[in-house]
TrEMBL record, chains A, B, C, D:
<dbReference type="InterPro" id="IPR020541">
    <property type="entry name" value="Chorismate_synthase_CS"/>
</dbReference>
<dbReference type="InterPro" id="IPR035904">
    <property type="entry name" value="Chorismate_synth_AroC_sf"/>
</dbReference>
<protein>
    <recommendedName>
        <fullName>Chorismate synthase</fullName>
        <ecNumber>4.2.3.5</ecNumber>
    </recommendedName>
</protein>
<dbReference type="GO" id="GO:0010181">
    <property type="term" value="F:FMN binding"/>
</dbReference>
<dbReference type="GO" id="GO:0005829">
    <property type="term" value="C:cytosol"/>
</dbReference>
<keyword id="KW-0521">NADP</keyword>
<dbReference type="Pfam" id="PF01264">
    <property type="entry name" value="Chorismate_synt"/>
</dbReference>
<keyword id="KW-0028">Amino-acid biosynthesis</keyword>
<keyword id="KW-0288">FMN</keyword>
<keyword id="KW-0456">Lyase</keyword>
<feature type="binding site">
    <location>
        <position position="278"/>
    </location>
    <ligand>
        <name>FMN</name>
    </ligand>
</feature>
<dbReference type="GO" id="GO:0009073">
    <property type="term" value="P:aromatic amino acid family biosynthetic process"/>
</dbReference>
<dbReference type="InterPro" id="IPR000453">
    <property type="entry name" value="Chorismate_synth"/>
</dbReference>
<comment type="subunit">
    <text>Homotetramer.</text>
</comment>
<dbReference type="GO" id="GO:0008652">
    <property type="term" value="P:amino acid biosynthetic process"/>
</dbReference>
<comment type="function">
    <text>This reaction introduces a second double bond into the aromatic ring system.</text>
</comment>
<keyword id="KW-0057">Aromatic amino acid biosynthesis</keyword>
């Protein structure tokens, strides 16, 4: 169905297949007057890109963004912004053999059941290549959130397999290829990833995403809750199997007296809620945790069936990431930014006239 | 904003406050010809209701459903079905004092920031009373899914505080007030709950939800994925802080060779995916896990601020659940059923003509 | 499908059948803080009601509105406002015989084709009784538009059969039962209507609707244009067969030099555009004209088929309006008000920060 | 706001400005398996194109469609279909002077009020160039309607200024540059158009659109009525000021006994309803009439104000159509086809299981 759009007032529609001529998106609803140039997209697309280190897929995509519409003399005009990225390193021959079999853990089987037809080249529409355009659209949202509201969105990898950060320093995150918050563990991670790659197997990862500076009041009860739409946005990313807000599943084992974040004129005493109460932002940092499964594209053979229903073995020889979660932080940031900007617009639609009667309790740091 | 509706083709709009005259919903998009009578709602509403045991809130609501429209001579006509439930046991005086202070962990503070006005009686719109209408709407979805597709949706509590089921028997679930799958632990749970209630504190819970019999092909890539919308639906329920599909967060520590569900003509070898691949159902059971935080309404005093911004203490003396998760299984079932029915309709809109070319791999039991 | 809602940010969902227990609506997205009481609805509902003069249907409905939610201490809270009107004068026996035949010009045939089932009592969902709730919802929009923006919405009947106003005086409109702008023609209209009623036949009417005080800038290109949504809103009213904006069909025979509304610092020289350019309001009065067909419920026999496909004759003996257009002005006003309020909210969502660089050209009088 | 999309299940999003790098669209929700190639678009785009005769604008656009996604090995896959058309003959210098003044009858004034910024090159987003992509998207809808349902959509010009067809022959329509149904009048039209062009003025036109073969049952009461959405679609086309269904405004002067279309087992006796009853198709031809105003881009000087609010004169020297309605039939066909295909999908979503109990009354010829 027509479900390739995300957001209500800031509406992003993506299109394109992994090995088709191009991928792209239309960002509709962006306010006018925002400075925007093709160069704005390079940084985040590069953070997400493959082929930069030996720890990711060796596909090399230029990921150059062409702005097709919606910008005049360097500023958005309020009309739809179309962004286009040509696919340049699409080796479809790598995928010739998978047209006739279903890779376990992939969408091959379900797409064919759903549509009766599928584009097998690189996974077609189900490829994570689609997330490139989420990151591109997210650039616009991040710019607007930063310029209008001073909001900062950032993410790190907070678990790989069973490795967890021993220390936590946001400044370390962008200084290593693993988005890892403890610089001292980077050699350990490199060793782990090298061994993983050689084994032909793959690993899962957990990504932590945070937004700082979100004012209280964003989020739309009861089905457009901020956390509900964050959950949908994150779960719509390829390979995601779980989403937590604030304390998440740990809150099951908490007492109410421990979980509830007490308030005083000096601020909130804790942030187990993850910055959202009743589906509405509280002014505290928004805290989200996302589980990425290990990719199912392995050099290790796996039992499956072919399109004739016969038993067979699949071995993936294409260029794949041994840990897709390691490229996910920019994608998670983009999704959180898109949800937040959409909610900023939704909030002011209904509540632009509201004079808040509530005192502001400081939200604290992230 | 106008976000009190859920679903795209089966669209449920709920309305009503905890202590207003009534709560209700409009179910728009239900196919014609489904048998429906007021009595159909009693069973599930009773499973969700308070006041049946000492372990839940002592508010007694009749929860009688009046069908206002959309049904003629006992069958749905394809026009909107409006359901109405009058509030009968609304003791607003219990809440008089909370109008001037913000309960920690509640939506009082965020609602006032958002709207500049709030209905403090029983939490108003942010009360879990709203979920009554989700359960009512879910009854229609469950009927349709069962009759048309033989689908069964069920749920249990799979964790309370740090108590976990030792055994697992679906048949035990409906035979105790805790939706607990191991009958032998019921006395232990009763002791725990009695102590909890006396302590004035509260506990979290984890709910497991399952759908059996969903055919392969439901779900709409890439932003209307089945798992994305399940996540949104669950996260929109009061007190939910996390959602997992299949292996969920455990998949982070899995190897790809362990996580991917191998296939053979005899069926899938496992179900770590939780029945969803690429956002589309695979024919395996849909498996979802949901984290409910401990309620923040406690008899234990907690620091907060009042509406003038001054420090104060809050003590909740109203009738509250010490573990809201214990009443959540029918709500989670309803949300899953609503998502599934919506997706069934969406799938056939686009794909009614599709002749599936894929062989069917048995999905196995739940 | 789920198409019983109107509007994007101010979203009105109506439900109910002509002879069911009740009709109602949910107004979602109304800003908080608007004063609202049950009595606010009486005036407009009475203007639309049947049974006040011999020129309309003799059905007597109390049309008392109960506010079920969304209002606290006399003010809207930003949560959904549910309104309920019980049906009290539903004589279903009047309609017993039409269950087995299709009234020509009615929706009987198409509803049965669509749904395979229909509620024949008074036309069920296809009855103009549904428009009661449009008028009720419109009351909220009119209040908000008047209070926030000083906007006034009004309508008159500008043609009945081939009778047209000779003079035009807005002050006359509410002083006669025909919403007619020339008081001197009222006796002529009474004579015409008496003869029409006695003949058993019916007449069409044209309604002119106007909004004064709409600021420039409302309307969303290119598919949410203000005129596009006004057209949809009007055409969704029962019996409407045509909609014009400004000069409408007369613009076909105009020269461009005649049609285009010249501008000067003193204002627009004319208003052939009807207050909308490029789908966006220009600050001039919004001018809309709507064609209502003559009702097909006649005492004169008409050839049709029965539900078995056999030829038969239909004679309508129920209580019907000989000219449905005579009750339509309040409905058209409501639809225009709902579209305008929705667009006001949409405009500020995207453009709240816009500093208009355009000089304001006076829009002139209506 | 995010209103550059049309349709609910077949959802078309267009983007692009008249003189930007490209225009394009994303068609989301198209069923899989439809044969589609770039060449399919040429015929209809050529019918709409400028520069073919002296009677239209002399802008020459190649209008070559690139399919960027959604098609694999010549068939749609069910994923979004992105279409791209590069702008090649954009002479922005023609428009340099209009950046500082408001053309009367154009959207210059309203866009600047709305957005505080505008792209003046060729009207930017408000240019009729956007309709190119409607025609392109409409090609897909027309193919699907024809192949699946045998539906044919066609249009003609039925009035230019005060010239009306004396005879009516659908076969004549595509044989002259005026889409005129009476071949004998073509010389008269040429003379009229030549004189009009020389005068520097412009003329309006009326377009008649028809769909043959639509089965009974399409259309979604009460706000998604087939006629309501046709009206919205037509009114969203540049320069449209009025829409009629069936008898349209003529129904005002009809008696009910004349207007209602009597039925017999042999078929409907007339089609004043225009093929739609209660918002649902009746199986008769869908008949729609659309009013196009005369373009406001004239060589004749006109009074206006500049962006500083000072009085000035505007003279349009760019390449413009003296009668935009003459290029509108393919656009109106496209919009009708898009609405119909969307409704076909919506109908089967809810009603795929319906066994119609209604006998079928022949709908007759167009």
């Amino acid at each position: 169905m027509s479900d390739n759009s995300f957001g209500r007032l800031l509406r992003v529609t993506t299109f394109g297949e992994s090995h088709g001529p191009a991928i792209g998106c239309v960002v509709d609803g962006c306010p006018p007057g925002i400075a925007l140039a093709p160069g704005d997209f390079a940084h985040d697309l590069s953070r997400r890109a493959t082929g930069k280190t030996r720890h990711t897929s060796q596909r090399h995509e230029a990921d150059e963004v062409e702005i097709l519409s919606g910008v005049f003399e360097g500023r958005t005009t309020g009309t739809p912004i179309a962004l286009l990225v040509r696919n340049t390193d699409a080796r479809s021959k790598d995928y010739a053999n998978i047209a006739s079999q279903f890779r376990p853990g992939h969408a091959d089987y379900t797409y064919l059941h759903k549509y009766g037809i599928r584009d097998p080249r690189g996974g077609g529409r189900s490829s994570a290549r689609e997330t490139t355009m989420r990151v591109a659209a997210g650039v616009i949202a991040r710019k607007w959130l930063a310029e209008r509201h001073g909001i900062r969105v950032r993410a790190c990898v907070s678990q790989v397999a069973d490795l967890r950060p021993r220390g936590f320093d946001w400044d370390a995150v962008e200084a290593n290829p693993f988005f890892w918050p403890d610089a001292s563990q980077v050699p350990e991670l490199e060793t782990f990833m090298d061994a993983l790659r050689k084994s032909g197997d793959s690993a899962g990862a957990r990504v932590h995403v945070q937004a700082l500076g979100v004012p209280p009041g964003w989020g739309e009860p009861v089905y457009g809750k901020l956390d509900a739409e964050i959950a949908a946005g994150m779960m719509s990313i390829n390979a995601v199997k779980g989403v937590e807000i604030g304390a998440g599943f740990a809150s099951v084992a908490q007492k109410g007296s421990e979980h509830r974040d007490l308030m005083s004129p000096d601020g909130f005493a804790s942030n187990h809620a993850g910055g959202i109460l009743g589906g509405i932002s509280s002014g505290q940092p928004i805290e989200v945790s996302v589980a990425f499964k290990p990719t199912s594209s392995l050099r290790l053979p796996g039992a499956t069936v072919d399109t004739a229903g016969q038993a067979t073995q699949v071995v993936t020889t294409g260029r794949h990431d041994p840990c897709v979660g390691l490229r996910a932080p920019p994608i998670c940031e983009a999704m959180l930014a898109l949800v937040l900007m959409d909610h900023a617009l939704r909030h002011r639609a209904q509540n632009a006239d509201v004079v808040s009667l509530a005192p502001t309790v400081p939200g604290g740091r992230g």
